[in-house]
Amino acid sequence: MSIRYLAGARLPTSVLHIKPKSPSPSSPLFVWIPGNPGIVQYYEEFLNLLHEKYDSFEILAISHAGMATEDPDLQKRKATIYTLDDQIQHKVEIINQFSAKDRPLIVMGHSVGAYMAQHVVLAEKLLGRVVKLGLITPTVVDIHRSQKGTQLTRAFYWVKYLPDIAAWVSDMLFNKLSSIMFTDQVISLFMGVDKESVPVATSKSLVQNPEIIRQALGLAALEMQQIRGCWPFQKKLIDHCNSNEIETKFVFSANDPWVSNATREALMVFYRENYRDRNLEISVSQDLAHSFIVKHSKYIVDEYF
Length: 305
Known about the structure:
CATH class: Alpha Beta
Largest sheet: 8 strands, mixed
CATH architecture: 3-Layer(aba) Sandwich
Number of strands: 8
Strand content: 15-25%
Distance between the termini: 20 Å
Helix content: 40-55%
Strand order of the largest sheet: 1-2-4-3-5-6-7-8
Structural class: alpha/beta
Order of helices and strands: EEEHEHEHEHHHHHHEHEH
Shape: globular
Number of domains: 1
């Protein structure tokens, strides 16, 4: 396994790439699209465990554009906020570097990554043949109606330049004023995991990179505006999946602050009414956290993959 910065990519990005145990043209390419912030290091444990279980998979996790901690120019760059459409097009471009015509593709995403995964499946320029779509704690409809979405929508309404302000505050707190030990302890306490863990190390990289903070919150603002009543798109996607025999797998958290109970139920009803039963799998976990990568990587691989 290696995480590397793709210097030749159109937009700044890094990938986590795990090769199959026995490479073959017919081996599936498993594509993972992260949530927000879209830093692939958060998913190292999860994807390693997944590869141990399915070693015939080639695994490709793609950071969101502008959120690559390996970017040598990250601190110098202050790009415009990359939109949801930018991020989706960017994922298709990177997938195409690793895929080929008719290669089996398993495309899965976490949180807003699930929204992107849905759009990737419908992308006309995508190379490969999608056989399965996975949506893990997905924020694909009405994110602004969730508990956290409501709070964030209000914050963006009242604080016009929130992404820039948050980036400045994070830089002051975690780069200019605090010690490394203090930063580790604060993040460890907040996340409830050991300070030597990957989630803590990754979160430390996040808070010490103000440009990633700015991009992540800028993207979040667009999520609140755009991921709303997307039911016509959901029907279009379902029709495409039914026509092409694409399996779809949902894994919901029963206590998800980013997906309201009403939204979850509406999605489940809509898909069960419109999707072919044999190709649809929906699970609702009482134990899974929205940010499962912090403590539940082994659990989700054991129970739902």
